Description:
- This protein has 9 helices and 10 strands.
- By secondary structure, it is α/β, with parallel strands linked by helices.
- The strands form 2 sheets. It has a 6-stranded mixed sheet, sandwiched between helices. A 4-stranded antiparallel sheet has the order 2-1-4-5, with helices on one face.
- Helix 3 (96-106) packs across helix 4 (114-127), helix 3 (96-106) runs parallel beside helix 5 and helix 4 packs across helix 5 (144-156).
Amino acid sequence: MTQPIIRFEGASKSFGGQVVLQELDLDVAPGEFLTIIGRSGCGKTTALRLVNGLLAPDAGRVLVQGRDVAGCDPAVLRRGIGYAIQGVGLFPHMTVEKNIAYVPSISGLDGWKGAERREKAAGLLKSVGLDPDLAGRYPRSLSGGQRQRVGIARALAAGPEILLMDEPFGAVDEITRGQLQDEILRIHERSGITILFVTHDIGEALKLGTRTLVLEAGRIEQCAPPSQILQAPATAFVEQLVCRSREFQMRA
């Protein structure tokens, strides 16, 4: 049996006395595209941040490739985990090329200087559907969709086996969002990277995920392939989400 690339074992987390995650037990298989959906404050982003060590669980543990995150060197851990967020967070004083090369450069990875850096940055821009000629431009001269694509390219630059995405397409228009969804599906299919993708949009969750995790009040309501979520919602809350998705499709 294949070992999970990510495992949550009774992971719990509270903030100021408010429980955000409650004894989360979950295995994520290598190469899986897990979409995570739920109300604001249900623990979606907290779960992501437990994976790359930005947060530590109050109880239980999180394992990445069989190693307890609590015992890992954070810098070493994060070299193997890409992180893309809404709003991107590109450095405004750096060119697109330097933004993409930032993590590999500070990590001391080989092949990220001079002509090799330009070649790798160009390849990553192509992989996210952008013209390599954008490499010399600054973030302020890019559209929102272009900046989001650069953010994905930067998250992929160090060749991670895991990509965490926290509502990455929430700030772009509907047409651009659809294009970005198709792009990340193509990247996933080509690379086989494991993706955890947080969204507030049930349609997006069902379109992208090989499995969809529905959280409510820090607990799992259902975790299943999208087809099963649609055909056999496990709880009333999941049924509400499914109905919302069907209403949206009818309006569209």
